[in-house]
Give the backbone structure.
Amino acid sequence: MTRRGARRSVRILGVASATVALALGVTNTALACNIREFSAEATCVGDKGQIVVTDKDASGTPATITVFSKTPAGVEKQVGEPQVVKGSREGTTVTFDENWKPDATYRIHVKTERFNVDNDIQPDLTTPSTACKKEESQSPTPPASPSASPSPSTSTSAPAPSASESTPAPADTPGDNAPSPATGDSNLAETGANSNTGLIAGVAGALVVVGGGAVFFGMRRRGAKNGG
């Protein structure tokens, strides 16, 4: 083998090695994990909200996904726990349950041990302007109908009889010469202040005295005659 032939062989080997190295470099670059291979969206399952992160890293590098909610003032709050996703060419997803509100902002952070990815998905996720569960419009409450006034009862109860009407006066018993008390008089015993009992008693007493005196004088006269 001549010197010229050797030089040519070395040159050919160098070109081939450079070509292989370049091809390997391009292949490694194509298989490297990149933040541009991650995306996020806010979805709904029924009336429940979710945040879905998709990893289309063909190298299958495990990546840790962390989601943060952001207020207009810039205050952040972590949503759930970080999740690990292993990407694929077709795309692998992880889901975070979150009842997001319309037009809310979320920051999604991606970190891998390989390829040193430690970035946020850009831009931040903004949720749709319509919530998953539509708030039901409250229908105006109809005014309460006036309650019907109770109709007067047609049946009227008879008035209770008074004491004087409910208790009949006792009938006079035969042989009872005492006058019956007038209706409405008191049941107390008569004191004589409003009767003629005193006058009758006086006349009777006087008649007894007169009669006694007449008998006494008559007996004396009879005794005198018998003694003479």
